[in-house]
Amino acid sequence: MKKYGYWLLPVMWMGVIFYSSATPYEDQDVKPFMERAFDLSFLTPLIDWISFPYHHAEVSVAALGVEGFLEFFIRKGAHVGVFFVLMCLFFIALHKTIRWRLSVTVALSFLLTAAYAGMDEFHQSFTANRTPYVGDVLLDAVGALLAGLFLTFFVGRRHKI
């Protein structure tokens, strides 16, 4: 891959994120699938005590049902995972095109990822039945932070930095 071709990796991944943010919630809802495919009622007594507020709503089995409760964690886990990957792709692109110290490359990768997370939430405000929320940007930043720790540990260890 040519030197600047590495930038296609984060750009294509941002395209995937952009497409996902432009998709209405109803088209991404996995609750109907879970209801058809699995009998999750056995989980109710194990998790029905969990309740907390998130974006002006209660997250609990009582409020969302078992499937909705699980979907909440699937969706929020996706925020963390997707932006973990984006941070790694920014790191690869920067590392392959600019030879900076590891700490600078990780920091810039984090800033680019966090900036895109904010822009993505803003973009989501134009999608039907989707709302932007700063809490989701924070989850995205957690994914980027975890990627930064991962990269610092594994790449730094490999290069004795």
Structural overview:
The chain is mostly helical and 161 residues long. It has one domain. Helix content is 71%, strand content 5%. The protein has seven helices and two strands, in the order H-H-H-H-E-E-H-H-H. It has helices spanning 8-21, 25-28, 31-37, 44-47, 61-97, 102-124, 134-158; strands at 51-54, 57-60. Strands 1-2 form a two-stranded antiparallel sheet. Strand 1 and strand 2 (57-60) form a beta hairpin. Helix 1 packs parallel to helix 6 (102-124) and helix 5 (61-97) packs across helix 6 (102-124). The protein is elongated.
Unreliable sequence segments: none
What is the total number of structural domains? 1
Order of H and E elements: HHHHEEHHH
Main sheet specs: 2 strands, antiparallel
Number of helical segments with 4 or more residues: 7
The secondary-structure class comes to mainly alpha
Please tell me the overall pLDDT.
Answer: 92
Task: Summarize the amount of helix as a percent range.
Answer: over 70%
Order of strands side by side in the largest beta sheet?
Answer: 1-2
Radius of gyration: 18 Å
Total strands: the figure is 2
Shape label: elongated
Roughly what fraction of the amino acids lie in strands? under 5%
How far do the termini sit from each other?
Answer: 26 Å
